[in-house]
Specification:
alpha/beta; 6-stranded mixed β-sheet; Leucine Aminopeptidase, subunit E, domain 1; single chain
């Protein structure tokens, strides 16, 4: 997979699929989740409500992912994934990595050739940014899915850290 790290707003990414750092309710929230729902419009919320009425009555578990329409976004699909809440007492990094790997598998199943990720769990879920970047890069770099993966970072410090970890800074 070709990997790019960029500074930007994931809601503006013109790729086949963008990944949403969702909460388990799938019904919108703050941060990336809220921004995607606001900019994507009511079609995304409606698709999420249908998922909640069916297979995901109890919500989407952490580490799993599911796709919906992208509504009014430039992307074709939104892949919603629920990251783990950071805990210094319990290693939840496998669940965080599962968010990325499951999203890649879903993108492949949709036929998506390009996918954009936010930095999952690094906002209100409290994951330390340096390690969140490391976990994301581990999975994306190991993927054998052809195509483009873009890690979209919201701040210049995060971009510099990702470039440092990739050895491109």
């Amino acid at each position: 997979m070709q990997l790019q790290v960029v500074l930007g707003d994931i809601t503006g990414e013109a790729v086949d699929a963008i990944v949403n750092a969702a909460n388990s309710s799938l019904l919108g929230g703050g941060g990336v989740d809220g921004a995607i729902h606001r900019k994507g419009g009511p079609e995304i919320l409606q698709a999420c409500r249908e998922l909640r009425a069916g297979q995901y009555r109890g919500g989407l578990p952490a580490g799993q992912a599911v796709a919906t329409t992208a509504g009014r976004l430039a992307a074709r699909w939104v892949i919603h994934t629920v990251g783990p809440v950071y805990s210094p007492a319990e290693d939840r990094s496998a669940t965080l990595r599962s968010c990325y790997s499951t999203a890649i598998k879903i993108a492949a199943g949709l036929g998506a050739q390009s996918i954009a990720f936010p930095l999952i769990s690094a906002g209100v879920y409290g994951w330390p940014a340096q390690d969140a970047i490391r976990q994301a890069l581990l999975v994306i770099r190991a993927s054998d899915h052809p195509g483009l993966a873009r890690l979209v970072l919201f701040g210049p410090d995060l971009l510099m850290e990702a470039q440092r970890q990739l050895g491109t800074a």
